[in-house]
Amino acid sequence: MLWYRQSVFFRRLYAIRSGRFLRLRQRFSKLWGNPAGLLPGYGTGNEPASGFALSDLSGSLRLQQSIGFGEDKNLKIFRRRLTRFEARQLFSLEICGISCYNLLYLLYIIAISCFCMEKRGRFGMFAKERQDRILQLLNEKGAVKISELTGIFSVSVETIRRDLMELEHRNCLSRVHGGALRIPRSGEYPVRSERAGKNRERKEELAGYAARLIRENDIIMVDCGSTATEFSRMLADRFEKLTVITNSLDVFEMLRTKEKYELYLSSGFFMNRENAFYGPWALEFLERFHAGTAFLFPSAVSLQYGIMDYDRELFAVQKKMMELSDRVIFLADSEKFEKSGFLKLADAKEGCMVVTDSGLKDEIYGLYRENQIEIIRGE
After folding, report:
1. Cα–Cα distance for residue pair 196/226, rounded to 1 Å
2. SS3 of residue 154 by DSSP
3. Counting beta carbons within 10 angstroms of the beta carbon of residue 154, is it exposed (0 to 12), middle (13 to 18) or buried (19 or more)?
């Protein structure tokens, strides 16, 4: 029974010597856009009756070169073995009426086909074209996910990972778990008066979501900044009694009319451009307290570089608030994401909580979630 199955298999292969293989070569030529005569024996009118001529190996090499890349290392080894096989004059051997040369050459063509499909993908796209398209998507969306790219290009996960590694090596992107992000660019640091009127609706939105994380009678520490001012306005509207510790004069002014609020404004050197206090006296003042939650307002958020800010004087105050609180919540509008700053407050890692507005792109939001970062986005 086994012999019968083998004989049926070889009889089917024998059809190569008829017009079936000519049709196969025509389809192969049409698929890859090769000119007539590039495939061995195709269109030349001098095809030997027994199959391919012994010079067909050079035609197969031209086939690979026409597709746009050199011969693969494994294919070179296979071709050399075919050449040695030819030199020993063993092509006269036949298996069930089919010459060994035809069988081996068929395997060689199949190997070339597989190599081409791996290089180009299902839609005939080279690695360079695919990488350029990945960068285009990255510029449009700010982030890309491996699972999405495999579906777009119809290639394996390993192929996409190699593309991302190559692009990262060229400093074109930043790889993260599950995908890639644009290289964080250094953001601008305008003065407080300029920031106050910028993205006000977004700041109000994220401040509203952050306020949901507070309960009546909570003890909180609040950083300084334009977003902190919007946040304190939201606190005044929603809560009757809170204990607030801050170094921001703007926050203090926003809450001082609330009779049931306990307000503590730090001492220290006064920074006019931020309307806030800093320095060793401010740090000494904060050490007298312990809060349930610290609300900080960084200038940049990045998966690669972490939670960052610019001001050296206020940096120490922010770190002290983080140290003296049970949990830390960072509030940043969507424009601050995937930018870098000067000083790192914390790593963007598991357990980190960030609140932002609805303007954050889905791709960036998804990558933060995949990296186990607790991120709250407006709807």
Report:
1. 5
2. coil
3. exposed
Distance (Å, whole) CA 311 – CA 196: 17
Q: pLDDT for 177-234, tens place per residue?
A: 888 877 656 555 555 555 555 677 888 899 999 999 999 999 999 999 889 999 999 9
Longest dimension (CA), the chain: 104
DSSP 3-state of 128: helix
Find the Cα–Cα–Cα–Cα dihedral 50, 51, 54, 58, rounded to 10°: 170
Rounded to the nearest 10°, the torsion over CA 192, 196, 202, 207 is: 80
Rounded to whole angstroms, how far apart are CA atoms 243 and 255? Answer: 11
DSSP string, 270-338: EETTTTEEESHHHHHHHTT--EEEEEE--SEEETTTEEEE--HHHHHHHHHHHHTEEEEEEE--GGGBT
d(C-alpha 146, C-alpha 161), whole Å: 8
Total residues found in the chain within this entry:
379
**Most confident of the following: 25-29, 35-39, 352-356:** 352-356
CA separation for the pair 164, 86 (Å, rounded): 42
The DSSP bridge partners found for residue 325 are: 291
Sign of CA dihedral 123, 127, 130, 132: negative
Which sign, positive or negative, has the C-alpha torsion 319, 325, 328, 330?
Answer: negative
Question: What domains, with CATH codes, occur in the chain?
Answer: 2-120 (no CATH), 127-180 (1.10.10), 192-377 (3.40.50.1360)
Quote the CA–CA distance of 201 and 234 in Å, as a whole number.
13
Question: What is the band of 140 on the pLDDT scale with cuts at 50, 70, 90?
Answer: confident
Closest CA to 264 of 298, 216, 256, 226: 256
